[in-house]
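Changelog-adjacent note: as of this version, every example in the card shows the full chain rather than a window. The one below runs 501 residues end to end.
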Amino acid sequence: MSTEIRVPTLGESVTEATVATWFKKPGDTVAVDEMLCELETDKVTVEVPAPVAGVLSEIVAKEGDTVGVDALLGNISDAGSSDAPKAEPKAEASAPAASSAKSETVAVMVPTLGESVSEATVATWFKKEGDSVTADEMLCELETDKVSVEVPAPASGVLTKILAAEGSTVEAGGQLAEMTSGEGAAAAPKAEAPKAEAAAPAASGKDVEDAPSAKKAMAEAGLSRDQVSGSGKDGRIMKDDVAKALSAAKSAPAPAAAATRAPVAADDAAREERVKMTRLRQTIARRLKEAQNTAAMLTTYNEVDMTEVMALRNQYKDMFEKKHGVRLGFMSFFTKACVHALKEVPDVNAEIDGTDVVYKNFVHMGVAAGTPQGLVVPVIRDVDQMSFADIEKAIAEKGKRARDGKLSMAEMQGGTFTISNGGVYGSLMSSPILNPPQSGILGMHKIQDRPMAINGKVEIRPMMYLALSYDHRIVDGKGAVTFLVRVKEALEDPRRLLMDL
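Full-length structure tokens:
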């Protein structure tokens, strides 16, 4: 008897998902509610549990496939039924030793890179030709304009041929390498790399597993295991060992490097490190320079007394979080204040298209977010129609997706205005760069207590500098100053937002 595994309900307005990872393979025994696979949607990651206990007899939707709600993912057979693939696990287990097993060539393909992403750069190979690999072991890492993508081994065997070297550009669905599984997989490592095979057992009588961070560092540096002395238990190589080996290599004379960098002293050249820019960093650099070259960019400044906003937040933050399930931050106040100001100064929310000015009767707010990979600007659409709670929820959700590298290109396009909060990093004052084709960006900064003259008396107030960078081709100085003053007024008296004043 067979039980179907189907795609569960994915959430409101979500109709499809991508099969991210299968945690079981055909022939594996599964228990009720044991996690079988993981699906990814535009909003969340969904785990699919086993509906019954038995044996996973078939996988219908493979990793990388796009599936709709209630689509068939696979089948589970009763442990004792004829549908359960009992013979396959034994055949796989005996493959390395059985002379009758046949070798099979397995293609390593570029996985799905994400919506509107068509190509990637091969950043690092963690395995080399002739290395033995196990199923799902990481083979290489790809870089796109947005995220890094790890490519696991589709099967156990030997990596026989690398078709896309490090630094090469590959397209979605293209082939990266070839593997051999079966009988050929057992023989290939000995034939192609006998020294590497013999080196590991010689170090100790045990099968020593090096630290994953050390493996990655060795792969990036192009070092083999026998070039690094392990300081860990039983000769295990640690990340520090790789760093020491690299330092020793750099201390050797490097005439070629010195020749290419004539102005740099040889001692300095030996201590330098050259790292290729990631595709995301290249995109950021290109777009920022385009903004400077294209727009007549100018920045105007003001300061805002945050007393009233902080008091309002402290008064209602607990009730707000209890009712809406999200914390009340400052970003929702600034977003509301900007929407209020954009209505009065629509030029800041417009863009230039050739010789036309395109005015937007809506506000799609970009919220700049720093991630380990670089700066990204997810867009919250129709923010002018949203409540404080909706804004805070959207900012939290977009921020998490940005940090996880799961934003689609569509989520970072179409913005009409941007807010950048450098204050979270301690910035007191800065001039933000426009996010083309937008005509304005607001820079928030650190809140700092400063003495201020209030009604003829000196008082300590929490102050923040604001900076508005704008495209002077479309926004006049009067409009830019008016916009910033309206933001200041709305924040210093939040009641103005309620009465649209």
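Structural remarks: The chain has three domains: 2-93, 99-198, 293-499.
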